[in-house]
Amino acid sequence: MLEHLIPSRRDISAADVIFALNAEAQRRQAAGENVINATLGTLTDDLGEIVVHESVMELWRELGPLEIAPYAPISGDPAYLRALIQRHWPKLDGPVVGCATPGGSGALALSARLFLEPGMAVLTGAPHWGPYDRLAGESGTRLVTASFKIAGQPLDLEAWERTARELLEHQGRLLVWLNDPCQNPTGLSLSRADRQGLLECLSRLADRGSVILLLDLAYADYTTDPGHVREALDQFAAVGEAGKLLVAAALSVSKALTLYGARGGALVFPWSQDPTLNSVLGIACRGIWSSTPRPPQALLVRLARDGKRQEQLNAEHRHWSQVIEARAQALDGALRAKGLPGVSWQGGFFVTLRPESPTAVAERLRTQGVFAVPMREGLRVGICGLRASDAPRFAEALGNAL
Asked: Taking all residues of the chain, what is their mean pLDDT, rounded to a whole number?
């Protein structure tokens, strides 16, 4: 009866591929097979159990009925938005321009809906988080990419500037989604020089039209070198304060607080005081999701006022960053022992391998009970769930698959 309402075909996105591979890996694991599932996007321990930061759970258990049950304000609790901003830029304490969103993904999707018109494109790095395509597409926009960082090589700034300029000239505006530092899926961050070059490029282009830079900071808490994260955030702050670009941030509690299911996030403009923008954000929220969950907002406000819990959470971040780094090092060593190219990691939950014909390689890995996510640019390997002890088997399977 409803067949005429259902498209005869739909595009298969990278997210669909991830879901399908993960589902098969879990089925085979449940059937008793010895499976390596490197498709996961959540942090797990060496027993395969999801990691939940105890400092956060202690706060969650302390929430009272009025921090859970009532609707949150349409644009989110201003104290929550300020606390999220100050987790990244502690000195910012002015009026808040922004809105609460269902996770960082809500912030990304909302930015495309607000700043672009159907048929326009978002510029981002490649490879990128798979759902970027779907998040852009739901508002009638699309992605255009320039190559992200490759280990040991400088960023191709000429390609970024050329692509950005063409988009700006064609559209009259430019929206850039920049997942840096600790990028998904490469596990790399831009160098200071690369980042500065890109920011200067965007600042030059802002003389020709509106440029909006959206920072996707989902994984910035997971690195054993917090200094390089601080350096990146300070570079972004300098550009935001200069005011030539509109600098926004997609912030989230999903990875940082291991509250994936709470759907707490925000789209914020830390260096803007535009009341019209704030009004537009509120209207958009009301029309799309009305209100976002109150509990994660109340929890973050509590966390911001609790120095002891903040120190406990920082210690948990340090511990699990060291675990992820050890997994990256184990995989790097195992690959090199097989005569294969190794991997580099600076932060986040993933690394990227770059074999030829990634889809065919992923299929041959699958037949050996090893699951990784194929992308146009390579294979995404979720070291957030790959045990260090699995690295030799992974490397052996990859060698067989090439």
From this structure: 95
Helices 307-337 and 391-401: angle between axes, nearest 10 degrees: 40
Token code pair at residue 176: 């850039």
pLDDT tens column, 291-314: 999 999 999 999 999 999 999 999
pLDDT tens-digit series, residues 123-179? 999 999 999 999 999 999 999 999 999 999 999 999 999 999 999 999 999 999 999
pLDDT at 25: 87
Residues 6+ apart with CB under 8 A from 136: 109, 112, 121, 122, 142, 143
For the purposes of burial, counting CB atoms within 10 Å of the CB of 61, is it exposed (0-12), middle (13-18) or buried (19 or more)? exposed
What residues have CB less than 8 Å from 292, skipping those under 6 apart?
A: 72, 76, 100, 101, 102, 106, 263, 264, 265, 285
Give me the residue label for tokens 């879990």: 26
Residue 296 and residue 256 in contact, taking contact as beta carbons nearer than 8 Å: no
Q: If residue 146 lies in a helix (H) or strand (E), which one and from where to where?
A: strand 142-147
Structure tokens at 54: 């105890």
- What is the predicted pLDDT for the residue at 29? 87
Give me the long-range contacts of 329-335 (CB less than 8 A, separation at least 24).
329/388, 330/388, 330/389, 330/391, 331/381, 331/383, 331/386, 331/388, 331/391, 331/394, 331/395, 333/391, 334/391, 334/392, 334/394, 334/395, 335/391, 335/395, 335/398
Give the DSSP per-residue string, 318-331: HHHHHHHHHHHHHH
Tens of pLDDT, residue by residue over 218-233, are: 999 999 999 999 999 9
Largest CA distance in the chain: 60
Q: Measured between alpha carbons, how far is 332 from 309 in angstroms, rounded to an integer?
A: 34
Nearest to 144 by CA among 163, 168, 157: 163
| Structural domains of the chain, with CATH | 3-53+310-401 (3.90.1150.10), 56-306 (3.40.640.10)
Strands 121-126 and 350-353: unpaired
- What band does 234 get if pLDDT is binned at 50, 70 and 90? very high
Both tokens of 121, joined, read: 């494109």
pLDDT score of 128: 96
0.85 exceeded by the pTM? Answer: yes
Nearest to 263 by CA among 103, 33, 123, 95: 103
